[in-house]
Amino acid sequence: MALARNELRPVVKLRSTAGTGYTYVTRKNRRNNPERLTLSKYDPIIRKHVEFREDR
């Protein structure tokens, strides 16, 4: 029996703001972070840390 995915902690895509199209996939808690998530992560295409924003 498979467990149902919890809608309180959905899977979100984080897309690079550098325009390279690189994405990370993570989960977020909707109760603590109802707005779009932004994280500083490494973009291997341009070899720098840039801001990644949640893509809907």
From TrEMBL:
Protein's UniProt keywords contain Ribosomal protein: yes
Molecular function GO labels: structural constituent of ribosome
TM region positions: none
Tagged with keyword Cell inner membrane: no
SUPFAM superfamilies from the UniProt entry: Zn-binding ribosomal proteins
Biological process per Gene Ontology, one example term: translation
Entry's Gene Ontology cellular component terms: cytosolic large ribosomal subunit
Gene3D superfamilies: Ribosomal protein L33
Keyword tags: Ribonucleoprotein, Ribosomal protein
Family recorded in the similarity comment: Belongs to the bacterial ribosomal protein bL33 family.
Protein name: Large ribosomal subunit protein bL33
Gene: rpmG1
